[in-house]
Amino acid sequence: MKMFVSKMILALIATALVASSASAATVYEKDGFKYQIKGDWQIQLRQDAGDDQHLDVEYDDLEIKNTISYDLGNNLSAFGQLDFGGKKAADEDAKYMHLEEAYVGLAYQDYSILMGKTTSAADEFGVYSGMEDYGTDEEAFEGHGEESGDDLIKAEASIEMVSIIAAYEVEAENEVSEDTSFYDIFVSAEFAGFELGAAFQNIDDADTIIYGVSIAYDAKIVWVGADYSIADVDGDEYTVWNIAASVPVTEKTTITAGFNMNDSDVDGYEEVSEYYANVQHKLHKNVKVFAEVGNSDEDDSDMGYMAGMQIKF
User: Fold this and answer.
1) Distance separating the N- and C-terminal Cα atoms of the chain
2) Residue 138 near residue 240, CB atoms below 8 Å
3) This prediction's pTM
């Protein structure tokens, strides 16, 4: 087994060196039209945290991203995105790649609006810095909210140091893509190395309101962050908070560690904490190798760990 793992690591490094010349590809560009294709492939050896878990090869990302845009003049542009993922095909032996994102939109300077299938505004929230989770929700929006939608209308704006994202998921009742309706907003501000964030989400049918605040500071020699979020689900409250820190050991190597806690006022709910640490090393701006360990304080939970590589273009 040790021999096999050693050979796997050498193979990963060799592949990364070959791929280090990769870059984003513009397939076609003419008369204000541009078509770009990008990729994000991450494969890792992983053993989950928990009781009696086993090592396997996991496909975290196998994405092909297609982006088109038209320059309409007067700072106005039209854009579209079509992303496909192969994770399910690799992990679950599905026959086809699945659709991850599909939307069209208009942009004017630092403002844009789009509609289609994509992430919600609340997906931007949080300072959680683990590459995987180890038995807890990363924030209240993950465990009790909606972080994406396929009948979504989303608007974004940047005003000097402030960025605002707002989204609304259409209920689409009695249609093929029938979903729970929700709306959310995320606001962030950056100044003097600080980044402040706040998010709010309301899910109509589930009688759920979620909100959270975050703060992070980048001192160049160290980055630190914390967040706190609460989900009110039909009168029951669930809270999640995170602290994380990251240190750039060298120009290409970064070490990160964090702690996460889930709690609730619901009778019988047991507080669960999670901790993790990872190291990431860039072989190229688009290629990195990484390793991570993590665990939770749940009963009989053994340490989880993983190592792998990510290639982008």
Assistant:
1) 32
2) yes
3) 0.86
Q: Where does residue 157 rank: exposed (0-12), middle (13-18), buried (19+ CB within 10 A)?
A: middle
Q: How far is it, in rounded angstroms, from Cα 210 to Cα 238?
A: 9
Q: Cβ–Cβ contacts within 10 Å for residue 194, how many?
A: 11
Which burial class, exposed, middle or buried, applies to 6 when counting CB atoms under 10 A from its CB (0-12, 13-18, 19+)?
exposed
Question: What is d(CA 57, CA 52) in angstroms, rounded to the nearest whole number?
Answer: 17
In the chain, DSSP finds a helix count (H) and a strand count (E) of 3, 17
Amino acid at 7: K
Write the DSSP assignment of 124-154 as a string of letters.
Answer: G------SS-SSS-SSHHHHHS-SEEEEEEE
CB 149 within 8 A of CB 309: no
DSSP-derived 3-state class of residue 122:
helix
Q: Are 292 and 276 in contact (CB under 8 A)?
A: yes
Q: Using only the alpha carbons of the chain, give its radius of gyration.
A: 21
Write the CB contacts of 306 (distance below 8 Å, at least 6 apart in sequence). 44, 45, 46, 47, 58, 131, 132, 291, 292
Contact 274, 135 (CB under 8 A): yes
Residue 304's Cβ-count burial label (10 Å; 0-12, 13-18, 19+) is buried
Greatest Cα pair distance in the chain: 63
Q: Which residue has the tokens 């070490």?
A: 255
C-alpha distances in Å from residue 37, one per residue of 82, 118, 306: 10, 18, 29
For residue range 160-200, list pLDDT tens digits in order.
Answer: 999 999 999 998 765 555 568 999 999 999 999 999 999 99
pLDDT (tens digit per residue) in 40-87: 999 999 988 888 788 999 998 899 999 999 999 999 999 999 999 988
d(CA 253, CA 248): 6
Among positive and negative, which fits the CA dihedral 122, 265, 129, 313? Answer: negative
